[in-house]
UniProtKB/TrEMBL annotation:
Protein name in the entry: Dihydroorotase
Pathway stated in the Swiss-Prot or TrEMBL entry: Pyrimidine metabolism; UMP biosynthesis via de novo pathway; (S)-dihydroorotate from bicarbonate: step 3/3
Cofactor note: Binds 2 Zn(2+) ions per subunit.
Family: Belongs to the metallo-dependent hydrolases superfamily. Hydantoinase/dihydropyrimidinase family.
Molecular function GO labels: allantoinase activity; dihydroorotase activity; zinc ion binding
Organism: Methanomethylovorans hollandica (strain DSM 15978 / NBRC 107637 / DMS1)
Enzyme nomenclature, EC number: 3.5.2.3
The reaction(s) this protein catalyses: (S)-dihydroorotate + H2O = N-carbamoyl-L-aspartate + H(+)
One BP term from GO: purine nucleobase catabolic process
Active site: D311
Amino acid sequence: MPDLLIKNAKIFYDNYLQPAEIVIDEGKVIKIAKEADVIAGEVIDAAGSLVLPAGIDVHVHFREPGLTHKEDWYTGSCAAAAGGIATVVDHPNTIPPTIDKKSFEEKLKLASRKSIVDFGIHGGVTNNIEKLTELWGEGVTAFGEIFMAESTGGLNIDEITLEKALGILNELGAIAVIHAEDDTIRLECEALLKNDMSPSSHSRARPNICEATAVQKVVDLLRKTGARGHICHVSAFESVGVLGRDRYIAREKSLSPITCEVTPHHLFLSTRDWERLGCYGKMNPPLRDRRSVKFLLNSLNDGTIDIVASDHAPHCESEKDMDIKTAPSGVPGVETLMPLMLMAVKKNLLPLGRMVDATSAAPARIFGLDRHSKGRLKVGFDADLIIVDTKKVTTIKGELLHGKVGWTPFEGVEAIFPDITISRGNVIWDGEISAPRGRGNFLPGTGKYMATSGHH
Ligand SMILES: NC(=O)N[C@@H](CC(=O)O)C(=O)O
Ligand SMILES: [Zn+2]
Ligand SMILES: [Zn+2]
């Protein structure tokens, strides 16, 4: 008898919403049919709600080890589950940073003990060029974010180191995940604004051209070295222009595309929100004006932007409640990503199919998580699913979220939260967290398999 039957579901299949029943056994989807005609150990009646692939958030900062007053693997993964995300990839700017075998093993142990969702771990790139191969063999998902400019953690590197690292990543066949901002432009602008204490000065300290210049530089370096690249959190319309041009050339030359992501805060907030948010609106890259915001949404629609990722970067209120120069950069977002995207679909800002691809199938494909059967509602794939009643529009409240910091830049914004999140056939969220600590599995990157299978 299979473990679970979801009946009265509506699924998005063949570009249509269709009624379906989904049969799950041993964590996998084993049958999808109009009428499954089986008796299962357990039955969930979706009562006509949508059943979609759970989200995959490839950009979170879960802050452990070292910064657990902001977040840890348990609270971060609970926030993910409550927001409809069943897989995350963590970034390296923890304390210690994830830059060698030892720090990687430490993070892996903590995450394995505490995470309730499946996870990958990215390796960091600093002056650890000689450690990249060992990190790859340990099973990091990819390398990054590689900081071209200062951001939380101070892991930024210069262009010479970046080029060297990209050469090695090309040999490994690993993806370079880039935080693209130009540090020279940042320093120049910051110097000019050193007496400007208005929160909105942060957007001018890191203007559009600061990002676009770095995007152009790293595109050139990726093409020169041959390394595969993914650009984090693009925010300026000029950057998307640079990437669109490269994509066109890449297609003509049959090169692998450089992929990119956008965050919900760059899609749904703008420089207008400085007034409401004050220093809580400080993040890198910063809030942009309406022109970029519109362009980002169009580019997500037409596929120039591949995926949505949260850049979940929590800081405590006591840390944010400082002057704009002292406050740390970053906002929480893992729990609100899917609810905001579902709301965007309801408002006709984006077709459902595009939203589903950008939050599940595409991140899985780009980061090789599809080899772990992630990212699709499909027979043979992991039963990582959400059940959503799209009629249930609520407003986001920081105090109801499950991360540690208790605030959100989206306070009062309309959203659609999932009723149920299922990970490998287990209900991990149904209005409360229903998963034991440490049930989440590590999803090793391809370097691990190459190391164990003995060829390179
Ligand atoms: N986005 C941010 O402003 N901050 C991130 C780091 C980063 O992604 O740059 C953080 O870890 O706090
Ligand atoms: Zn970043
Ligand atoms: Zn980040």
